[in-house]
Specification:
Length: 296
């Protein structure tokens, strides 16, 4: 009986996986219709990539170009020295509306810093280069944004944990991929899954390469969190708990292997940010609530 049940479940799961794969391939290959957004500012989808990820890049870009809501610009930022390595299947997407811009190589910050500099008055939505994005990804995020609330909205977030003594806990001990939709300064967006930054949300220091390369050279999510919190923003995850769907083989390289480790990676960066700006971070006018230390 058990063997029969296992066979039935296996057949069902294989069918679901096959259907999901077919839907993803359809989304990646077909040119689908979209409608204009209703924001007062331009809407920019911004991402970056580098040569080890170029083999998987086309499918992600097609997902971003095939959204139900149409962005004004979908921009891929590539370091000057990597431009000539872009494959034809990526450059050909310019015919479908993709914009490819070369920029200074500031590592993962290429995802947003060049866009902030070029479009300071635009709404910028961040994305990663190795993920599947469902058709309604941009629409869900954009329509959850309410300018008057002072919220950075995102699709995926962690819950920052503090001890009863008011000390920040290790990054590995936070509640990762939280299901809560609470707006809070203790919600930590993961920008690759999709986060929306409107004009004025980020502190003016956000584009200072001298600061982010010193304090958080590979931890752009940490930097963006502090820069938004310094401007008094809170953070809210929209929709249900989201899992990431990376393309097979794309995870052999990436910052996840560097940032997610106790006594290293993000923990070192967070400690530097706490020392520099406090936690909760000091606002633009220098005010601060109780400044929490980092757990030793």
């Amino acid at each position: 009986m058990l063997i029969k049940v296992v066979k039935i479940l296996t057949t069902y799961c294989l069918g679901v996986c096959a259907a999901a794969r077919a839907a993803i391939e359809w989304h990646c290959r077909e040119q689908l219709s979209s409608r204009p957004h209703k924001l007062a500012q331009k809407l920019i989808v911004s991402l970056t990539s580098y040569p080890p990820r170029f083999n998987h890049l086309e499918r992600t870009l097609r997902c971003l170009l095939n959204q139900t809501l149409q962005a004004d610009h979908v921009i891929l930022w590539i370091a000057h020295g990597d431009m000539d390595q872009l494959p034809h299947n990526v450059t050909a997407l310019t015919k479908l509306g993709l914009e490819i811009e070369s920029c200074e190589d500031v590592g993962p910050y290429k995802k947003i810093i060049p866009a902030l500099r070029k479009f300071p008055d635009a709404v910028i939505v961040t994305a990663d280069d190795d993920l599947y994005y469902r058709r309604t990804w941009l629409e869900e995020l954009t329509e959850s944004y309410v300018p008057a609330r002072g919220e950075v909205v995102c699709h995926r977030a962690h819950r920052i944990m503090v001890t009863s003594e008011g000390l920040l806990q290790y990054y590995a001990d936070w509640k990762h991929n939280t299901g809560s939709n609470e707006a809070s300064q203790l919600v930590f967006p993961t920008s690759g899954a999709g986060a929306l930054y409107a004009p004025g949300m980020l502190h003016v220091d956000v584009t200072r390469a001298d600061l982010f390369t010193e304090l958080a050279p590979k931890s752009d999510d940490v930097w963006l969190f502090w820069m938004a919190a310094r401007n008094g923003m809170v953070f809210r995850k929209v929709g249900p708990r989201r899992l990431l769907y990376p393309w097979p083989g794309s995870q052999q390289v990436g910052l996840r292997h560097v940032n997610f480790c106790k006594d290293g990676g993000n923990d070192v960066v967070i400690a530097k940010m706490v020392k520099a700006f406090g936690f909760p971070p000091r606002t633009a006018d220098g005010r601060s609530n109780k400044v929490m230390e980092y757990v030793a």
